[in-house]
Design a protein that fits this description.
- The protein is mainly beta.
- The protein has one domain: Maltoporin, Chain A (Beta Barrel).
- About 10% of the residues lie in helices and about 50% in strands.
- α3 crosses α5.
Amino acid sequence: MSSSIRSRAHTATRRCLPGGSLAAAAALSSLLPLSVLAQTQGNTAAAATNAATNANATTNAAPSNPVASPASSKPATPGGDSKATTLPDVGVKAQRELPNKADVSASPKFTQPLVDTPKTVQVIKQETLREQGAATLMEALRNTPGITLQLGENGNTAAGDTFQLRGFAAQSATFVDGLRDLGPVTRDVFNLDQVEVVKGPSGSDIGRGAAAGYINLISKLPELDNEGQASLTLGSAERKRATVDINRRLGGQSAARLNLMAQNSGVPGASMLRNKGWALAPALSFGLQTPTRVHLYSLHQRQDNQPDGGIPSIGRPGFYNADALLAAGAPVDRNNYYGSRHDREKVEADMFTARIEHDWAPGLTLRNLTRAGRSHMDRVLTGVNALSRNNSTDPALWTVARTRQRVDQTNTILANQTLVNAKLTLAGLQHDLVGGAELLNERQTTLGTGTTAQLIRGVSYGAIAIPAANLYRPNVDDVLGLPYLTGIDTEGQSSTVAAFVADTLTLNPQWKINAGLRVERYRTTTTGGTLVTSTNLATYASQGYAVGGVVPANMSNSGDLSSWNLGVVYKPAAHGSLYAAAGNSSTPPGSANFALSATSTNQANASMKPQRTRIVELGSKWDLLDKRLNLSGALYRTVNDNQVTQDLIDRSFIQDGRTTVRGAELAAVGQLTNFWQLTAALASMKTSQQSQRSIDATTGAVTNTTGLRWSPEFSATLWTSYTLGDFTLGGGVRHVGEQKRVITDSAAAANMPSLPGYDVIDLMAAWKVSRQLNLQLNVGNVADKNYVAALNNSGARFLLGAPRNVQLTAALQF
């Protein structure tokens, strides 16, 4: 049975645990060899008593998952042999699978249970996402404190999933089943079993660019069962969304699975915005439950959205403008749209994966993954910028300048990864080894665009129309020009060859040592061009270029990187651990988008050294309440070096900047009782930047930088649900503290200096109408909190969080 469908089908059993699992284990134990039963004789009485007690406690229990399956009523023992439960000397205790708690990672790179893994790893399971009505990855990541949404630079808006984790950008560290994902795509959760968030520098796990950690998305794959589910969601802002998940056994040890999604939805609180799209994810698996297994699967996604460039920040708390009248101006209507109805965001993404696994012997497994993928984004978006009173005291005549952004970008990836897992004993000590190699090629092609009057290669281009918008009454029918294609395109490519090995050495039942090493050779190349204008003509005239000429730009950067981790685990009890860990990662120039820069002040300049990030973490993890509830806590210190600053004497640009992040995190996930689920976490973070005293490029004034942008000192998240008969009630709260934008003492006060903190409350109610049908109601932002979800780097524009919204989901099992 597929993991996704299985988790729904057996939710009733799991939510009524532990009794249901133990009773089933006692019945199934009749199939065990007599020799095994004889060895477990000493535990018989305790196991039988525990099974009987817990089974009685759950006799009248109802499934708390709003999407339960008729399979939940299947008999525990195929064939129904009643004598099986009366056999003596049964010492089997089942491993319970809880709806919202994972005991192990799906990644083969983690060889130990999560409670014995010396780093912070949060697993967000699909049952939690289903209760919350989450549809996108960013909605899923609301369950992780310390992650903040990013909006982009002054004239641009970042595309796809753009976020920051533990103080560092992490959008380029998204993986699918352990391999790097494609470029700017808004990821959907319809085909995910779970989302794994690994925090802290993780170069030994994934290689370059892992300063903050990484997100690993686990795909749904076929299993040996015949089940299916379809869901339909209707809600506020004309929300319409449908998903289908079908798993079928093909005969023998083969199975197929198909996941589908379609949506056509508005955005609550923004009448002009719309998200449309569809996706399908077919998969075939052969040799399931045999020594050799083959999985072939792909993901195909199409999006056709009306993008959001944000609204002006005038009138928001903390807003400042040198013009007193503008500074006192009223906020704009949240429904205002400053772009054109012809703005667009079209995305096509296709990804194919082949995974082969072979068990050579007990404890020895070989895995090989091959992936090819391509994504294309065509986006035209309008942003807002400077305000103007137009010499009028009448706000009806005030305007806001607009920018036009066009992105036509193609990303491709080709990757192959080989992993070997081995469990062996050497010199009386147990080793859990994982090692392998990775080949990776990533390419990004971005078409050059322009908006101003220019001469390019003898062709004259006129400036496109970008009239200012009325500040309080923008008109979506204003004629806005389409940025033209200049032919000065940029192509970036990065190739990586890597080898890695990790070992967990078990010294005795109390002590484990974990160590890992990854070495890789990378090469990044960028080809493009620089347009010669009257401004830079003096630089290129001696080379024979005139205005309108294009100077070819070919840049490259290569090198060797080594990343390591070391962790020591002490287990004062079988169900708990204390650990100390350290690790590092490296981020070479151009790692984010394979685009090197010719600008000497840019961190992506090919002559720059890689940024180096180190972490030290102390933590503890405990499985309590018979392993139904996990509590964890961690203290960490992360240091990032080699940031670009400007020398105070000769004004040269050097890499002596350092960022330090100190933090603490606490988390609890699992069951408080058989019917009460809990997922909660909080994070406290202090950030600072040292050796960042530099010179303002415009004024020449000395500036001192403190802290990090978009890094709240405190954030927390809570989700809980309780089942009573056929009904489940749930809810949660999300808190994000203030996020600073102004982090330099010489920065001129303008726009919004920070993003105010906020709290959002969400509620859920579900009704199991029958064995096949479930209804679920979600109410988001119950208190109708008006809050800013993201602010751009200049503070001129922002995105508001969704107001109170409602959605109703009907789920049908078949």
